[in-house]
Structure formats: structure tokens, C-alpha cells
Amino acid sequence: MSDQPATHPISPRSHTARPSFTNFLRLAVGVLGVGTSGPLLASGSMPVAMVAMWRNLIGALVTLPFAWRSFARVRTTLAPALLYRALRSSAFSGVLLGLHFLGYFSAMRLTSVAAGTALAATQPIFAALWARITGHHIPFRSWLGMVAALSGVVIISNVDAHLSWRTFEGDLAALGSGAAAAAYVVISSKVRESLDTSLHTFTCYISCALTSFFIAIGLNQLNFFSFENPVKEWLILGGLVLGAQILGHTMLNKVVEHESPTIVSMVVLFEVPVASILAAIFHVGNRPQGALIPGILVLLVGSAFVVTRD
Length: 310
Known about the structure:
There is one protein chain. It contains 14 helices and no strands. By secondary structure, it is mainly alpha-helical. The chain has one domain. It is globular, with a radius of gyration of 19 Å. The two termini are 30 Å apart.
């Protein structure tokens, strides 16, 4: 995607403006949806690539009728070259979403839900850095926020490294998922200038499902239907599709049509307390160490400062 800045003009949308009330409500629903993801993943045992594949395949099938109508409509209003360029970008965002899922799902199994979601919440930092690279202004307060958030990352990683290599691997996976999620949101915001939510969502989800399928092959996770506790695993998968996939990512895709990807990434920070509270209520996942709390708070406060009002 090295030619992205040349083929897509810089969006006039502010990277620090407050979302509209309607989009704020959509973001709230989206955050509640994605917040269910961590606890559900931590309570299951289905291989992570399989979870991502089934979740996105089912999500794609749900959106297919709406996407088909959208495709029939947009092909009459958009030049073929622009349409297929947008579809290619949408498919590429699905690859990035697949990498995000692989990292995030792995983190939920390796470290605590609180630490994993907090480290994945570095997404706005990566989104802000990409915005700066592509020519947008990032306020000085945001740079200070990045430094503070990085300090939080160091604190969390240092605590987990002393616990075990397994938890530290979970931290690295969560950080990688944050970077992939930021790239996914940035590209999605460009795609949404040409495609509506349903067509972009379907293309992205089916591409993500294919990416997860090939990752599963590479990891030799080829057991597609039979699991240790099949009823439990399929119920968890259904919860992921309804909550994180349909209400979560689809709603965020709708918002990113009108709002800055940095804003969307910042609001998604609230996934951390939602996921942590749910994990504590249902007693799922590794219990976070008390020493992690200061690092999580520093990371969240710093990340929140990455995006400030104009």
C-alpha cells in the first residue's frame, strides 16, 4: 500500500474533532460490542485462527444480501476502475483485520484480558503516527500522550516478563494487533469514501476469513468442526459474531465514514474497562497482577491524550 497517499487525497476530516451525537451513540454500541470479545475468547479453547475464520465467514454471510444490493447500485454510479480499486483496498483491509484478530485472540489466551486489551488499545497511537506520515497535523499534546502511553506499555511488559515468557508473548501479540487494527481503520476510512458500509463490510470480512483460513493451514489448525466442548465453543462463536462482529466492527465501519480514524481508535479505548469488568464478573481469563494496574492507567491516559479537541 505504498502508493496509498498518492491515490487517495488527504481527508478534510479533523483528526481531533468531537464526533456528532449520532456517531457517538454508534461508537458506544460498537465499544460495548467489541468489549465482549476478550472475555469470550479467554473462556474458549477453539484455535484462534479457526475462531477468526468462522467469525468472519458468518459475519460475511449475514451482510451478503445487503452487500449485493449495494454492489448493484454502486456499479452504476462509480467508474469500474475506481470501484475495483476500492474493492481491492477493502480486501486488503480484511487481511489486516485478520492479522489483528490473530494477535488479539492469541493475547487473550496468553495474558490477562485487562493487559491484552490495554496493549491492543495502542491502536490510536499507530493511527496518529500514520496520520502524521500522510501529512496531517498532530498536536503537541498528542505527542506527549504517546510518550506517556509508551511508558505504560513498558510498565505492563516489564511486569509480565517477570511473570513468565508466555505472558510476555501475549503482550507482544497484543501490541501487534493494535498496529494491525490501526492500519485496518485507516484504510477502511479511505474505502468508505467510495463504498457503503455493507459492501465494504462484506468484502473485508470475506477477505479476513480467507486470510484466517490460510493462517490456520500454516499453523496446522485444520480441525474445522470438532472441538473439545463443541456446544460451548459454538455458543462462544455465536456471541462473538453477534457482539463483536455485527454490533462492534460493523458499527465502527459505519462511523468511520464520517469521523476520523484517530477519533474512532481513541473511543475504542473504552473497550479496556468494558472487557476487564466483564472478565471479572464471569471469572474468565488470567487474573491481572496488581502491579499491572498503574501501567494500564498510564497507557490509557496517554492514549486518550493522543487525540484532543481542536
